[in-house]
Amino acid sequence: MRKVLGKIKSAEFGRISDYPMYIGLLLTFSLSDGGVVGDGGKHCVNASSECKWENEDKGETYIKAVTDTYKTLVDAKVMSVSELINVPVEVTLDGNMFKDFRILTEVL
Q1: Does the chain have fewer CB atoms within 10 Å around its N or its C terminus?
Q2: Is 83 helix (H, G, I), strand (E, B) or coil?
């Protein structure tokens, strides 16, 4: 595990092109070491009517996705997802795989 400084390169709320049944916050990060990594749809949920989850589990997952998006916006001190671009972050990687990120609130 390693932590790398960077900035949010792109921020969208929508469906994942390869998995259109998923919807949520989609982030890509430019890293200080020259790399680029996406969040892999970590904050997305399966919204398909064909999803066989129990309604209670589905509801909890939706709430978590929206709550995580809200926290990201609050931490970044912005009102919309489009304003997340260029916000400084610390990205946690496992090898070259995205694990997590945090907004660098201390430099905003």
Answers
A1: N
A2: helix
